Amino acid sequence: MVTFKKSEIRAIEEAMAFPNGFGYVLDFSDRTMSEFFEDEFGIEIYEEKYLVNGTSKRNCLATFFKSSDVYTTLKVLRALWERREGIIAKSPNHHAIPEAISSTDAFRKVIENQEANPDSTKSDGVDKFTSERTLEELVADIERTLAANKPEVALDHLHTYCVKKITHLLRIRSIDCKEDEPLHSTFGKYRKALVCEHDLHEFSDRALKSSILLLDSFNDLRNNHSLAHDNEILGPVEARFIFSSTFDYGSNCSCVTGGTGTNVMW
């Protein structure tokens, strides 16, 4: 569960008060707020457990935050931040709106505090997909490092894990890959295999292709910004974002092929 300071709750409420005033949540109506949470997070925000402290949008949101885990809370806060920024940008003379400007920094600080929470990074996607001692030690080390709130230290091993996972997905399909083949190249082979196995829509194929670009960038990150070499490493907040993004994206890609068994990205 998330524990917010009273000042943080106040900062959220003041930020959400724009543009409709205190007690509201941004520009949402009851209907659009319900749709937003359902579409973006699969959450029924007007479920009875979120209404115990009142049925207003403000009370409902506050109750949701108090009863949710850090990971989910942070995803919602980020989405609300983006929506709020969009509303402000579309407002006439938005740079001169006092209530928008004064609450932005405090709201940003709330998000940054949650990003620094070790529980905001999940290692659920790091699974032991085959029986192998090296893999077991690798997964255990990633989990230990995340538990110690040092995601920047684990980025090198996250890259190694991705290499092993994609190589495994290729080998069970009897597809060869070289020992020194770059991560994005092996994923390119995996994408081609999925295209052959499934009647993918153009959108799905483009999503898989975009993964190749991301993993190519991950190669650079591993080589030049991790402990793989004598590098200046990333800060913990950015490293945590990379971890979360990697597994969120992998989870979404798994839906392409059913999300079970071996036909998944991660």
How would you describe the overall organization of this protein?
With 266 residues, the protein is mostly helical. The two termini are 27 Å apart. The protein folds into 2 domains: 6-118; 133-257, no CATH class. The protein has helices spanning 6-16, 30-41, 57-67, 70-90, 98-115, 133-147, 151-171, 183-197, 202-225, 236-254. It is elongated. The protein is built from 10 helices and no strands.
Question: What's the mean pLDDT score?
Answer: 83
- Total count of helical runs of at least 4 residues: 10
Number of strands: 0
Q: What is the alpha-carbon Rg in Å?
A: 21 Å
| Span of the ends, CA to CA | 27 Å
Helix-strand pattern: HHHHHHHHHH
Structural class: mainly alpha
Query: Assembly state here?
Result: single chain
Domain count: the total is 2
The main β sheet shows up as: none
Beta-strand content bin: under 5%
List segments where confidence is low: pLDDT < 50 over at least 5 consecutive residues.
257-266
* Coarse shape: elongated
The residue fraction in helices comes out at 55-70%
Concise description?
This protein has 266 residues and is mainly α. The chain has helices at 6-16, 30-41, 57-67, 70-90, 98-115, 133-147, 151-171, 183-197, 202-225, 236-254. It has 2 domains: 6-118; 133-257, no CATH class.
Write a concise keyword list for the protein shown above.
266 residues; mainly alpha; 2 domains; 0% strand; elongated; disordered C terminus
